[in-house]
Amino acid sequence: MLNYIAQFFSKIFDSPKLKRKLLIISLVLVVFRIAAHIPAAGIDRDSLTALFLGSPLLSLLDVFSGGTLANFSIMALGLNPYINASIILQILGYVIPSLEELQKEGEYGQEKINQYTRFLTVPLAILQSFGMYALLKSQSIISNLGVFELVLLCITMTAGTMLAVWLGDLITEYAFKSGVSFLIFVGIISRLPVSISQTITTIKSEDMFKYGIFLGLGLLVMGLIIFVNEAIRQIPISYAKNTNLKQSASYLPLRLNQAGVIPIIFAVSLVLMPSMITQFLGSSGNQNLLNIATNIQRYFNPQSLVYNIVYFVLVVAFTYFYTSVVFNPEKISENLQKSGGFIPGIRPGSATIKYLNFILNRITLVGAVFLGLVAVLPSLVQGTVGVTNLAIGGTGILIAISVVLEIIREIEGDLLMSKYERYTK
Question: Which partner for 65 in 52, 78, 116, 220 could form a disulfide, CB atoms 3.0-4.6 Å apart?
Answer without folding.
Answer: 78
